[in-house]
Amino acid sequence: MFVLPELGYEFNALEPHIDALTMEIHHGKHHGAYVEKLNAALEKYPDLKDKKIEELLSGIKDIPEDIRQAVINNGGGHHNHALFWESMKPGSSQNVPEAVTKTFNTLEDFKAKMTEAAINRFGSGWAWLVKNGNNLEVYSTANQDSPLMEGKTPVLGLDVWEHAYYVKYLNRRPEYVEVWWNVVNWDVVNKRLNT
């Protein structure tokens, strides 16, 4: 059975960039609902309940068809958000991974590429930095689709669903994306790149 992970910091810890009300609703209501619906979908398949979320998503084609979309939506939502909370911290660390600057030339070039993926994602979804074999890539996915379903390892994810920013930024997604860089936890990105 999956549980909603602790946020790891107070709801207001990312202010002024991300407001407390957004964090409270986003974590408790949205992420909480993904966990509840994932557990409900897995009820009829007890052998799946003991698997790690990474196993479920990376083996999505093996999930029974009658619950596959529910696992994509809610399992993806659970995993994506768990990564998202860890990817942020009050007062962004400046320990930018060498692999990022080596692959994308400069931090600014990387930010521009990921920002473009986030802003240009039509509708709801995510912008990602992923490991694909020995390479790093930036791209976006729709809805709660996880890079794990494509055999890629998510390293840094930016939620661009409206619930991630609408309370404070309304329809100004580019503004939200720009300020989000102020709370990126580069220490966690480094750790993920080295595992």
Task: For this entry, give a set of tags.
195 residues, minor pseudopilin epsh fold, Helix Hairpins, globular, 12% strand
Largest sheet: 3 strands, antiparallel
Fourth CATH level, the homologous superfamily of the largest domain: Iron/manganese superoxide dismutase, C-terminal domain
- Into which percent range does the helicity of residues fall? 40-55%
CATH architecture of the largest domain: 3-Layer(bab) Sandwich
- Return the average pLDDT rounded to an integer: 95
The figure for the number of domains is: 2
Distance between the termini: 25 Å
The 3D shape can be described as globular
Report what the structure shows.
- By secondary structure, the chain is mainly alpha-helical.
- It folds into two domains: 67 residues, Helix Hairpins (Orthogonal Bundle); 96 residues, minor pseudopilin epsh fold (3-Layer(bab) Sandwich).
- It contains nine helices and three strands.
- A three-stranded antiparallel β-sheet has the order 2-1-3.
- α1 runs antiparallel to α4.
- The longest helix has 23 residues.
- The protein is globular and about 45 Å long.
- The model has no long low-confidence stretch (mean pLDDT 95).
How are the secondary structure elements laid out?
Layout: H1 20-42, H2 46-49, H3 53-58, H4 65-86, H5 98-104, H6 107-119, E1 125-132, E2 135-142, E3 153-159, H7 166-169, H8 173-180, H9 186-193
Helix pairs in contact: 1-4
Structure summarized in a few sentences:
By secondary structure, the protein is mostly helical.
